[in-house]
Amino acid sequence: MMKKWNKGEESEKVKEEEKRKIIEPEEGKKEIIKELSREEQKEARRVEEEQAVWNPKTKTGKEVKEGKITDIDEVLEKGKILEHQIVDKLLSLRNDLIAIGQSKGKFGGGKRRVWKQTQKKSAEGNIPNFACMAVVGDMNGHIGLGYGKARETLPSREKAVRDAKLNIIKVKRGCGSFDCICNEPHSIPYATKGKSGSSIMILLPAPKGTGLVIEDECKKILRLAGIKDVYSRTFGQTRTKFNLAKACIEALKNISKIKK
Fold first, then answer.
1. How many domains does the chain have?
2. Phi, psi of 242, deg, nearest 5
3. Does residue 67 sit within a domain?
4. Could you read off the pLDDT of 156-180 as tens digits, one per residue?
5. 53-68 confidence digits (pLDDT tens)
């Protein structure tokens, strides 16, 4: 028997195909997006939409959009980045948040959280303010740390991510441990030191398979920088995660300054 043609089923199939065309990315980007979480997928699509309507204001931005510059290292050599869309265009970034705040609770508060909340007293009542610290990286030698403040949580996160993209740096990687002779860029080439406030961090090269022997919040920074094995030592007030994260970034910056 021949199956009767149903107009409703056909229209539903057409709608599903149209949705698939809108939702599905290009073939080259499908494999990358499958690895990302739901939030990262939303961020990737938001970046694509932003790139489509981007009207660059700086000379470097215009050259990047026209395709004259295709390497982020060339942009970093010129000086400070003034448009975060430049970084979005040249790098495929992932981001994470540093737990710089603490939830409310008795006897000094509860567990750590990513939002640092403060309040201002006024005649109308308490006015809350939220601060956030974000780290972005391509897991291949490029990392950035940013800080943002706003009256609400999500705008402060967006500001922090934008600031992190503007502060992107190149990290020199290598295999500097005397226990390892693999010559792969899994660690750092030599010992380095960074300081912010009273927090001091020393990073030491480690052999392959050691992992990240470092504080949990700094692990987020090193993972996004593409460093897999490292030893560390810390001094000063390490409970202040804001300064500890900045000290870790300063230590990574100082690797390229050392001449050996």
1. 3
2. -60, -50
3. yes
4. 999 999 999 999 999 999 998 888 8
5. 889 999 999 999 998 9
